[in-house]
Amino acid sequence: DPKHDSTFTLTGFLIPTIIDTLQSKNYHFEDIWSQKVIHKGYGGVDWVEAGGPPAGAGCGGYVGGETVKLLKELNAFYQYDIILFDVLGDVVWGGFAAPLNYANYCLIITDNGFDALFAANPITASIKEKARTHPLPLTGLVGNPTSKKNLINKYVETCPMPVIKVLPLIENIPISRVKGKTLFEMVGSQPSLNYVCEYYLNITDQILSQPEGIV
């Protein structure tokens, strides 16, 4: 993500990005070791931050493509049981769509706003295109915290797909970003957050159950 903070709550700090590391090595992939770009965060989970160019100075999609290329060079795709790519919704560009070449499932995360749901259209189009070369089901849709879900309901009526969960408005979710901690880490000192974590565990269980999804 060009914002450079996708992994912040899991690491507690802004980790060096892949694009910054590549630039420091003049894009010599052979000079980069996995320890330079893969960082361990909360729960022993390894994280990578793709990063991106300054505003108006380059293409974020290019960075996405280079990130996938480097991870492949480092054999990272074969070292883990589960790999998650958090990709911007505008995946019509080749770089942002690059992770789909290695995906087993695709999950749309959106909110109840028009713009976010509109961005889901190129995602579904990209999945359809990638599915021509390898099986790539759309697992479904997860709604970010919202007090309403009328537009989400209307969207899935028009573009049928499973709705895995629409989260209710929960104040502590944005607070976790301010604290630089995951909700699961915060629950140690705030047991009242257990019910929030259950929402995410339920979503995880559904994804790990390898649902058929839609193609």
TrEMBL record:
The keyword Chloroplast applies. GO terms for biological process: chlorophyll biosynthetic process. It holds the Pfam family Fer4_NifH. It comes from the Eukaryota. Keywords: ATP-binding, Chlorophyll biosynthesis, Chloroplast, Iron, Iron-sulfur, Metal-binding, Nucleotide-binding, Plastid. InterPro entries: NifH/chlL_CS (IPR030655), NifH/frxC (IPR000392), P-loop_NTPase (IPR027417). GO terms for molecular function: ATP binding; iron-sulfur cluster binding; metal ion binding; oxidoreductase activity. Its cofactor is [4Fe-4S] cluster. The keyword Nucleotide-binding applies. Belongs to the NifH/BchL/ChlL family. This is Light-indepedent protochlorophyllide oxidoreductase subunit L. The gene is chlL.
